[in-house]
Structure formats: C-alpha cells, structure tokens
Amino acid sequence: MSEFEGLVAAVTGGASGIGAAVVTALAERGAHVAALDVQPVSEKDGVLGLRADVTDDASVRQAIETTVDRLGGLDILVNNAGIGAQGTVADNDDDEWLRVLDVNLLGMMRTSRAALPHLRRSRAAAIVNIGSIAATAGLPQRALYSASKGGVVALTRAMAADHLTEGIRVNCVNPGTADTPWVGRLLARAGDPAGERAALEARQPHGRLVSPEEIAHAVVYLASPLAGSTAGTGLAVDGGMQDLRLRPR
Ligand SMILES: NC(=O)c1ccc[n+]([C@@H]2O[C@H](COP(=O)([O-])OP(=O)(O)OC[C@H]3O[C@@H](n4cnc5c(N)ncnc54)[C@H](O)[C@@H]3O)[C@@H](O)[C@H]2O)c1
C-alpha cells in the first residue's frame, strides 16, 4: 500500500504542465486529488477538477471547501499556479508587477490561508510550494518573475517555522527551465525557437530541459509522510544549474 492511500491533495494550476504532472503522480500513488485551475481540468481516476482563481479569495475558499466536502478532508496542498514575466526592473509597469505578484505570491498565501484549518486536522499535513531557479540565481530579463519567486522561497521558510509545531510541514521545489506548455509558448514567440531552446538546454549542466515528471517526483517526495523530518527546505530540480560549474562542452 502506498503512503498516499487515504490522503487528499489539492494542486493549484493542476490543468497544465508541472501541476498536471503532480496531479497524475499523486493520484497514481493512491491520493485523492483536486486540481484547482482557471482552465478546465481533465478529470482522470481519483481526480476532481475545480475551477479556481488564486487571485480571488472567495474562489479559493470555495474550491478548498468543495475539496474537503467531496474528498473528505485535506492533507496536502501543492501551490503551483504561476505566470511568467519578462524584462528588466524598468520594463514592466505597476499593473503588471501587481498582477504577477498577485498570482505567484499572494495566490500561495490565499490557498494556504484557506487550507490551514483543514491541514491542522490531518495526520500527515504538508504544503509544497513551487519556486524557481529564478529565486536562487540571477537570470537576465526576469526581474519581476524572480522577485515573485524569491518571495515564494522566503514565504516557504517563514510558513515552515510558523506551522511545524502544528504538524504541518512546508517546503518548496525550485525547478530549472522545464519542458511545459509555458516554455513552449515562450519559444513560439522567439525569433529563432530552435536556437532559443538550444540556449535554454545548454544553460542547464545536464544539457536539457527538466521534465514535469521529474519535478512532480520531487513534490511527491516532499509531500510524502515518509519525509516527516524535512521542513523549510528548497529542493532544486534544475539539472545542477544552481550549484554546479561544469567545464564547457
Ligand atoms: N516551466 C518552467 O520552466 C518553470 C520553471 C520554474 C518554475 N516554474 C513554475 O512552475 C509552475 C507551473 O508552471 P508550468 O510551466 O507548468 O506552467 P503552465 O502555464 O503549463 O501551467 C500553469 C497553470 O497555472 C494555471 N494558472 C495560472 N494562473 C492561475 C490562477 N490565477 N489561478 C489558478 N490557476 C492559474 C494555468 O491555467 C495553468 O494551468 C509555476 O509556478 C511556474 O512559475 C516553471
């Protein structure tokens, strides 16, 4: 029997990319999973698709309550919903700064706030936030996005400190550039998509993009009751981009 049997998970941004891979990985291991997204979610065995916008507090609360009512509780929250932004600190106007921070950072606060009363009742409570290599390394043209993800990493540690003694572990996963529809959209807009993809692959020491399944595997590890002594940590899934310095090929 898997350690996830009988546990309930909610995954924001569960309709696409990394979130969809996390939904599949948790459901395959026996968890009952709610996928919360602004887009329709394809419902598979053991998966409940719920429309929710993490920028809208009422919508988040409703989706968490529906998850608890329909699936019988809440043990695991994966805060994955996020959007991108490009440019230097001078390139995005105030509205864009507020829009991206609202989704990427305040969205995690809203879902966590709504989930906490239910997580406190769980025997195996865990929150996993999705950060980014952009939080831990300086990347060009990503000022706003990096600021939002730096906030996620700091928020993860603060939440871990606040809730550990309540039996709720909080951690984050920091992916490198991953092969998701998001990156597909970025590449499609580039003047030379193949060249841009090759540059992104070469930036990661293992020479390729990270797969959504590899990131989901890290989320599963941190969410698992078997990781009961891991709290406040950031797990890099980036082909070594954060810490390794290989000689050029
Ligand atoms: N793809 C990468 O290279 C990469 C790298 C590091 C971190 N990340 C992070 O991983 C997460 C997922 O990215 P992805 O590449 O799978 O992107 P994606 O665009 O494929 O999926 C993101 C999902 O979030 C949903 N979403 C967006 N705004 C929402 C909102 N307001 N409320 C609810 N759902 C919303 C979208 O509808 C979509 O289904 C993001 O937090 C992103 O910052 C991605």
Q: What is the gist of this entry?
A:
The protein has 249 residues and is an alpha/beta fold. 44% of the residues lie in helices and 15% in strands.
How would you portray this structure in words?
By secondary structure, the protein is of the alpha/beta class. It has 8 helices and 7 strands; from the N terminus they run E-H-E-E-H-E-H-E-H-H-E-H-H-H-E. It has helices at residues 17-28, 57-71, 94-119, 133-136, 143-163, 181-189, 193-203, 212-223; strands at 8-12, 32-37, 47-51, 76-79, 125-130, 168-175, 234-237. A 7-stranded parallel beta sheet has the order 3-2-1-4-5-6-7, sandwiched between helices. Helix 1 links the parallel strand 1 and strand 2 (32-37). Helix 1 (17-28) crosses helix 8, helix 2 (57-71) packs parallel to helix 3 (94-119) and helix 3 (94-119) runs parallel beside helix 5 (143-163). It is globular and about 50 Å long. The N and C termini lie far apart (45 Å). The chain binds nicotinamide-adenine-dinucleotide.
Keywords:
alpha/beta, 8 helices, binds nicotinamide-adenine-dinucleotide
Q: Give the strand content.
A: 15-25%
Largest β-sheet summary: 7 strands, parallel
Distinct helical segment count: 8
Taking all Cα atoms into account, the compactness measure Rg is 17 Å
Give helix % range.
Answer: 40-55%
Structural class: alpha/beta
Q: Give helix and strand order, one letter per element, not per position.
A: EHEEHEHEHHEHHHE
Number of strands: 7
Query: pLDDT under 50 segments (min length 5)?
Result: none
Mean pLDDT: 97
How is the largest sheet built, in terms of strand order? 3-2-1-4-5-6-7
Morphology: globular
